[in-house]
Fold this sequence. Notes:
Blueprint: H1 3-22, H2 27-36, H3 41-51, H4 53-59, H5 64-67, H6 71-128, H7 130-134, H8 136-151, H9 156-166, H10 172-196, H11 202-218, H12 220-223, H13 228-248
Amino acid sequence: MTVGQWLLLLAAGIAGGVINSVSSGGSFFTYPALLAVGLPSINAAATTLAALTPGNLAAVPEYLPEVRGQGYRYRRELPVVFVGGVLGIVLLLSTGADIFDSLVPWLILGATLLFALSPRLQALAERSAPSVTDGGSGAGIVFALSVYLTYFGSGVGNMFTALFLVRGFGDFFSANAAKNIALTMGTVMATVAYGAAGLIGWWQLLPVFVGSMIGGAGFAKLARRIPVSALRGLIIALGLAVAVYQFTA
Length: 249
């Protein structure tokens, strides 16, 4: 890699770590940056999952006050995340690059649109779908999101945050803490599996990994002061831009 490519990936990692520490959508920075330095799409996706792990993990201590007292909810949700994550890994490894490439633009567009609609979907669920709040329907959605998390993952954190709000994690920051823990579990699993399968670009991962740590640990307090509406607008705009690029590439 050139110095310019290394700095591009470092900057993308920092941006991804900051965004993921307070919301989600960091992969909308790192995935196109990895494509720009020459990785195939399936390798760029696998490398993004691995590289953003430290950003999610490093942000967890910032949210420990929100984690305390939620233990029974974590015991309910995390086993579902684990099983769904395993299935997502199996699907990616078994379907291969051609199917993955054909799905990527639709996955990005769908994730962006679902994120844009998530406040309305959350309000609808809270008003009229108690099975989502406490029952099997909500667990099924957690499972589906966990499959998507390890299969591709872009934008999934926003959907996890909205769902965990509905599932009783309280305010935004409590749900965001649960999202960070769920994403850390999924991305660690994906890193082990995709690393063993040879899908991760380790040299490209390094600057994104470092940047993600810096962004997640160093800027989480600052990022929490950014209005949620501004973060949402940035993530939606970037997600649409990446989707358009993927459709025309």
